[in-house]
Amino acid sequence: MIKMLSFLLILMSLPAMGQPSLPEVRKMYRAAESNRKAAERMLEQLESVGAEEPVLLAYRASGTMMMAKHVFSPFSKMSYFNKGKKMLQEAVDLAPDNVEIRFLRFAIQESTPGFLGYKDRMAEDKAFLLREVPKLKEGELKGLILPFLKNSEYLSEAEKERL
């Protein structure tokens, strides 16, 4: 009986079958920006992700917001944008010191048209990223963030050099 309970506890602690790994999600994220099918696949893969996985929730939110680029109807665009915005804020609230989540919010804000009024946290996120990205040890994550920041129009040349 004890062996059975131990086995069940181990099974319950494993990630859900079919849920992509973080490296896979990062690849999907890169593709989703310019490809509707990739964005749809990303959302399908992350459909069941919730508050228990704040980083994956942030990617789900980013993918949802990216879908606004890939649909024609203004109503659909706003629906995807607002749904993703709410999810992304939930992810930030769950893990406010997570560099990857704050990067995703910064990246979405940078690419969002100004008339949507979603650039209000850019200065905060930029300061956070400038402080925390140089401390990152994970090469893959740094490889995702650094090129983006070095090409960002919201960073000065001096800020880019510090990275």
How many distinct folded domains? 1
How would a crystallographer describe the biggest sheet?
none
Which blocks of ≥5 consecutive residues have pLDDT under 50? 2-16
| Span between termini | 55 Å
Number of helices: 9
Give the proportion of residues in helices: 55-70%
Bulk shape: globular
Gyration radius, rounded: 17 Å
Care to count the β-strands?
0
Topology:
Blueprint: H1 2-13, H2 22-32, H3 36-45, H4 54-70, H5 74-94, H6 99-111, H7 122-132, H8 139-150, H9 157-162
Helix pairs in contact: 2-3, 2-4, 3-4, 4-5, 4-6, 5-6, 6-7
In words, what does this structure look like?
- With 163 residues, this protein is mostly helical.
- The chain has one domain.
- It is built from nine helices and no strands.
- Helix 2 packs antiparallel against helix 3, helix 2 (22-32) packs parallel to helix 4 (54-70) and helix 5 (74-94) packs antiparallel against helix 6 (99-111).
- The chain is globular, with a radius of gyration of 17 Å.
- The relative contact order is 0.09.
- Residues 2-16 have low confidence and may be disordered.
